[in-house]
Amino acid sequence: MSQKQLHVAAAVIRDKSGHILIAQRPKDKSHAGLWEFPGGKLETGETAQQALIRELREELGIETQTSQPLIQIRHNDPNAAILLDVFEVSAFSGTPRGMEGQALAWIKPAQLVNYPMPAANAPAVRAARLPRQYLITPQRLEPEALLCGIKQALAADCRLLQLRAPNLFSADYRDLAVDVLGLCAGKAQLMLKGPLEWLGDFPAAGWHLSAEQLRKYAACGRPFPESRWLAASCHNAEELKLAAQIGADFVTLSPIAPTQTHPEAAPLGLEAARDLIAGFNQPVFIQGGVTPDDGEQAAAIGAQGVAGIRAFWPSGG
Ligand SMILES: Nc1nc2c([nH]c(=O)n2[C@@H]2O[C@H](COP(=O)(O)OP(=O)(O)OP(=O)(O)O)[C@@H](O)[C@H]2O)c(=O)[nH]1
Ligand SMILES: [Mg+2]
Fold first, then answer.
1. Per UniProt, where does 8-oxo-dGTP bind (predicted)?
2. pTM (2 decimals)?
3. Per the annotation, does 101 bind a ligand?
């Protein structure tokens, strides 16, 4: 017997203060009592976006004004193979109400982990907690210049930052990381990059693995609990597979287009990137030859957003 295929559209609805709307599944439905992103199954002939608009009207009594793809998740449940097509809804009219008697809650993104959801939702929760841009610090800057640029980036609403400074000696990097953690507190999520031996020194920050580290450690599994972000730099299907194996929460995929800094690396192009992203279940930031203006294009190929160094670094820094 072939497994049932379910295509479901669901919404991460944000209000003006950045809270997210979740709903509790009613008693008479599957996964009763678990929380979910409002939405439902596509009807025959509908696109995912059309289904989303209809479901939000039926379940919440709102009219969707702006929606953008966030993440597509493929999940095999004992009863069905689910394709969960998650959109971000940032503008709507009307006040959401539980039209089917379901409980609703507006919560901060960081609180999502406290509401039990179906297993398929884990990557969507990660995607909802991450911004659309990932700033990586440029090489060969002295600590003062780095701190100055980071302050400017934070003032310009940078919310995910990777402190990459391969030019610094380890002691200097570690001192700098302490300062940057302080600057980021309450503003941005900080990812550090360096030897895994340093992990214990920085319990507050996430960790970004190089492709080389990924190869070395993937077989050992996740190096720390899920309360911190684990990310990895990937360039092909094999590295994405290792990222899934180690339990990475999100990845960068590069290079998408030719870049000045890596002219020798063959760019993937958007089509190949789209296929790789479709085969990977966690948020992907595309990097290399993309700029902050490419966010919409990134979302259109299934990516979380764009990552980068020079094109993302504050110009005065
Ligand atoms: N809406 C929604 N469904 C989800 C999520 N996560 C998840 O695994 N699902 C699954 O996707 C399917 C969607 O079902 P649904 O019950 O919302 O479908 P529906 O609104 O069309 O309801 P109906 O079939 O009772 O008319 C269910 O199997 C549900 O468990 C989620 O975050 N939101
Ligand atoms: Mg539903």
1. 25, 36-39, 121
2. 0.95
3. no
